[in-house]
Amino acid sequence: GIMAVLGCGFDPGVTGIFTAYALKHYFDQIHYLDIVDCNAGDHGLPFATNFNPEINIREITQKGRYYENSTWVEVNPFSVHRPINYPEIGERESYLLYHEELESLVKHIPTIKRARFWMTFSESYLTHLRVLQNVGLTSIEPIEYEGHQIVPLQFLKAVLPAPSSLGENYQGKTSIGCHIRGVKDGKPRTYYIYNNCDHAKAYEEVGAQAVSYTTGVPAMLGALLVVTGTWKGEGVFNVEQLDPDPFLEKLGTYGLEWHESINNSEEFAD
């Protein structure tokens, strides 16, 4: 039969594998999951997105959603935020977003009581975004311009820097991971697992910035595990349904080292 694996970038992708690894090795039940995504890099440009601007801007300007007590809670964009400490980076203001991996994780790990996703944005980025929204350039509704129908967001995509052009001067790091709380042998436990990736090192190795690097490497590795028969199945799978061990055993050898900490993080003690 044919096997398909959904969402095998970093988030979604590695974050689901991190969560499955935590459940397999460190928890009897996972109760609270907070996925955190920080890009502390600087590309030297006033405003640019790190991947497809159309997808990126639509993703972050839609309402935020998180899962709590068997229901989905909706909040206004950027209305829920908090400072979060990221390894080797420090504290960064982080905003609650809707991210698709939450949907499958709460389905496949039904003991989860709350699942949230957080991402960092600089004040400059948010100011540019607010201005673009206010003048209508983030709209996906077609308008007529000189006899042609155009979508403002698609026009904006055409004038913004291409994400692939950002790598050369990019400095700083990304940090993506999972803060997890639950129980093991009847006792509460906290667990944090993450990867940091350096933009300049990624560019030196493959000619791309770290956001592209952290997306491409996991997709390659997932494909490798499927074609070699390490991951087997018939039908469509989310990554957290598959054995995380062979993936994480190889991830560091392909340039994405990961780190873990047990009962050593109070970042999400609420």
Could you provide a short overview of the structure?
This protein is α+β, with helices and mostly antiparallel strands. The protein has helices at residues 14-26, 53-61, 101-108, 123-134, 152-159, 199-206, 210-227, 244-251; strands at residues 3-6, 29-39, 64-68, 71-75, 81-86, 90-97, 114-120, 143-145, 148-150, 173-184, 187-198, 235-238, 259-262. A hairpin with a 2-residue loop joins strand 3 and strand 4.
Question: End-to-end span in angstroms?
Answer: 45 Å
CATH level-3 fold name:
Dihydrodipicolinate Reductase, domain 2
The quaternary organization reads as: single chain
Low-confidence stretches: none
CATH class reads Alpha Beta
Describe what this molecule looks like in 3D:
The structure is a single chain. The chain has 270 residues and is α+β, with helices and mostly antiparallel strands. The chain has one domain (3-262): Dihydrodipicolinate Reductase, domain 2. The chain is 31% helix and 31% strand. The chain has helices spanning 14-26, 53-61, 101-108, 123-134, 152-159, 199-206, 210-227, 244-251; strands at residues 3-6, 29-39, 64-68, 71-75, 81-86, 90-97, 114-120, 143-145, 148-150, 173-184, 187-198, 235-238, 259-262. The strands form 3 sheets. Strands 2, 3, 4, 5, 6, 7, 10, 11 and 13 form a 9-stranded mixed beta sheet that branches. Strands 1-12 form a two-stranded parallel sheet. The model has no long low-confidence stretch (mean pLDDT 96).
